[in-house]
Design brief:
alpha+beta, Fructose-1,6-Bisphosphatase, Chain A, domain 1, D-Maltodextrin-Binding Protein, domain 2, 13 strands, 31% helix, 26% strand, manganese, metal-binding
C-alpha cells in the first residue's frame, strides 16, 4: 500500500471521529429548546477534533464569515498543518430546530475534497433536486415536477403512487407540494435539514426516492459530495432573496447567479470524502443513544474514489475519551 492510499484510508476514519464528536456534544441538548447552545456545543467539539488530524484544511463552507463566527468560519485553517491541502465543508449541527424540539433528522456532517474540489457556496438559498444512481440523468431542475417524477418512477421501476418525495415544510413550497400530489406521488414533509434526505435518495432501504425544493446552498454542496460518492445526482440553482445575497455570491466567485449547477459544478471530482453522524433519528442514521457509561452513535462514511460506503455503530466510553473529544459534552 502506498503512502497516499494509507493516508486516505486514515482520513476516512478520522472524519468519522469529527462528526461523532459534534453529534455527541449536541445530543445533550435534544429537546431542551436551545438551538444556539446545541449548535455551539457541536461547533466546539468538531473544531477540537479537527485539530488532531494530519491535514492542511481550509474551511470553504462553515459557520459564516470570520466576523460572524468564532470558529469554523470561512477561510479558517483546520488540521495539523501537514499535507495534504484540502477544502473543508462543515455543518456541525444540520437541523438546529430538530435538536431544540427533539424532532427527527438532525445530523453532524462534513465533506472534504482536494483544494478547489468544492463549490464555495454562499450562505443563501438554493433550488435543488436530488436522486439516487438509478435515476441519474433522468431529472432536470427546470422540467415540470410531474415530468421529473414520471422519469424517476420509470427509472426505479415503481408506480407513481409508490414514489416518496421529501420536501421542506415551508410556504414557499406550496406550489410544488400541490404539483407532487397532483402527480400522484407520496410526500414526506420535513421541518428542518435537507442534507440527510438528499443523501437517503441514493441509499436503498431508506424509503426516500426524491428530494426537491429550496433549501440552504451550503447544504446543497454537502449533499452533493455524498451523492458524488454514491453515484447519485443533484442539480441546483442559487436563489437570492436580495441584492446582498448576489453580492455575497460574487464575493465567493459565483458571478452567474442564474447558472444551472450540475454535479461537476458542485463537487468537481471523485476525490472527495463525506461523513455524517446521526444526532436524532432519521431515514439515514440512528440518533445518539446515551448509556450508563457513555453513548452509542451511528455514522456513515463515504469515499468518492472507491465508492465505498461504511456504516459505523460505535460505543463510546466517556471515562476513556480524551478531553478534546468531549468539548461541549456536559
Amino acid at each position: 500500500m502506498n503512502n497516499e492510499m494509507a493516508m486516505e484510508r486514515e482520513l476516512t476514519m478520522e472524519f468519522a471521529r469529527v462528526t461523532e464528536a459534534a453529534a455527541l456534544a449536541s445530543a445533550r441538548w435534544v429537546g431542551r429548546g436551545d438551538k444556539e447552545a446545541a449548535d455551539d456545543a457541536a461547533v466546539q467539539a468538531m473544531r477540537s477534533v479537527f485539530d488532531t488530524i494530519r491535514m492542511q484544511g481550509t474551511v470553504v463552507i462553515g459557520e459564516g464569515e470570520m466576523d460572524e463566527a468564532p470558529m469554523l468560519y470561512i477561510g479558517e485553517k483546520v488540521g495539523s498543518g501537514e499535507a495534504p491541502e484540502l477544502d473543508v465543508a462543515v455543518d456541525p449541527l444540520e437541523g438546529t430546530n430538530s435538536v431544540a424540539k427533539g424532532l427527527a433528522g438532525a445530523i453532524a456532517v462534513v465533506a472534504i475534497a482536494k483544494k478547489g474540489g468544492l463549490l464555495h457556496a454562499p450562505d443563501m438559498y438554493m433550488d435543488k433536486i436530488a436522486v439516487g444512481p438509478q435515476a441519474k440523468g433522468r431529472i432536470h431542475l427546470d422540467a415540470p415536477v410531474k415530468e421529473n417524477l414520471a422519469n424517476v418512477a420509470q427509472a426505479l421501476g415503481k408506480s407513481m403512487d409508490d414514489l416518496t418525495v421529501v420536501i421542506l415544510d415551508r410556504s414557499r413550497h406550496d406550489k410544488i407540494i400541490h404539483e407532487v400530489r397532483e402527480a400522484g406521488a407520496r410526500i414526506r414533509l420535513i421541518t428542518d435539514g435537507d442534507v440527510s434526505p438528499a443523501v437517503a435518495c441514493a441509499i436503498e432501504g431508506t424509503g426516500v426516492d426524491v428530494m426537491m425544493g429550496i433549501g440552504g446552498a451550503p447544504e446543497g454542496v454537502l449533499a452533493a459530495a455524498a451523492l458524488r460518492c454514491l453515484g447519485g445526482e443533484m442539480q441546483g440553482r442559487l436563489w437570492p432573496e436580495n441584492d446582498e445575497d448576489i453580492l455575497r455570491a460574487q464575493k465567493l466567485g459565483v458571478h452567474d447567479i442564474n447558472k444551472l449547477l450540475t454535479m461537476d459544478d458542485l463537487v468537481c471530482s471523485d476525490d472527495v470524502f463525506f461523513a455524517a453522524t446521526g444526532i436524532t433519528e432519521g431515514p439515514l442514521l440512528k440518533g445518539v443513544h446515551f448509556t450508563s457509561q457513555g453513548a452509542l452513535t451511528h455514522t456513515v462514511v463515504m469515499r468518492g474514489k472507491t465508492g465505498t460506503v461504511r456504516f459505523i455503530e460505535a460505543r463510546h466510553r466517556f471515562d476513556k475519551k480524551p478531553a478534546y473529544a468531549m468539548k461541549g459534552v456536559q
